[in-house]
Amino acid sequence: MDSDDPCQEAQASEAVQENSYVASSKYWEHVDPTVDGMLGGFGNISNLDIQGSQNFLTTVYQLLVKPGRQRAVDCGAGIGRITFSFLNKVFPVVDLVEQNKTFLEEAQKQLSATSHKGQFFNVGLQDFHPEREVYDVIWVQWVLLYLQDEDLVAFFQRCRLALKPSGVIIVKENIAHGETDEIDVSDASVTRSMSSFKTLFNKAGLKIIKDKKQPRFPKELYDVYMFALRPDFAPRTIS
């Protein structure tokens, strides 16, 4: 078969994507279902992280067009740390999406002792297909680094349709130090640059309406940024 055959190239691309998802899944199979496990040994930053997220969400509710407060979804929820710590206190209904069954069971266990209402989806974000116009807030944190670019854009496009008219997508992710994306072969993750994220947001038809750097994290960690996104109905340029 010709090396330039588009069918061959597509098959090779699919194989790379599948292998990366298998590798990251296997990595997380060996991680303890604890806060320290979820945060890569930096469990001590959890309170700072939650405080930063709460403060950012508060500013989102100061926008002229505010999202509702009825239903949210926690994407890449792990053991439910974010839902347990604050989403559950803001929204009457919070759904959780997590591909690791052990983590999701731990989340169910912890949230069973609260007033939590919501569904649990045992699936990766690349395979998550939410209903249309059901979410006021879609929270996506420290999980996009495991999605290939094509799947990330497709995920965001599905999220656009899942938002209520005034809803927002909140993204909180590590940002690479320079302009080059950084690959970690140990867990098949990609830490993207700021420009990469902006390009992907644009391709998905999303615009940044607010952003902020997470304050007070240890200097040895990546910079972490929070983005509030909404559908962009203006003409888009796709590079």
Automatic annotation (TrEMBL):
Catalytic activity: N-terminal L-seryl-L-prolyl-L-lysyl-[protein] + 3 S-adenosyl-L-methionine = N-terminal N,N,N-trimethyl-L-seryl-L-prolyl-L-lysyl-[protein] + 3 S-adenosyl-L-homocysteine + 3 H(+); N-terminal L-alanyl-L-prolyl-L-lysyl-[protein] + 3 S-adenosyl-L-methionine = N-terminal N,N,N-trimethyl-L-alanyl-L-prolyl-L-lysyl-[protein] + 3 S-adenosyl-L-homocysteine + 3 H(+); N-terminal L-prolyl-L-prolyl-L-lysyl-[protein] + 2 S-adenosyl-L-methionine = N-terminal N,N-dimethyl-L-prolyl-L-prolyl-L-lysyl-[protein] + 2 S-adenosyl-L-homocysteine + 2 H(+)
SUPFAM superfamilies: S-adenosyl-L-methionine-dependent methyltransferases
EC class of the enzyme, as a word: transferase
Pfam families: Methyltransf_PK
GO molecular-function term, one example from the UniProt record: N-terminal protein N-methyltransferase activity
Superkingdom: Eukaryota
EC number(s) recorded for this UniProt protein: 2.1.1.244
Family: Belongs to the methyltransferase superfamily. NTM1 family.
Binding site for S-adenosyl-L-methionine: 76, 81, 125-126, 141
Protein name as it appears in the record: Alpha N-terminal protein methyltransferase 1
GO CC terms: cytoplasm
Organism encoding this protein: Lynceus sp. MCZ IZ 141354
CDD domains: AdoMet_MTases
Gene Ontology biological process terms in this record: methylation
Keyword entries, A-Z: Methyltransferase, S-adenosyl-L-methionine, Transferase
Gene: EOG090X0EJQ
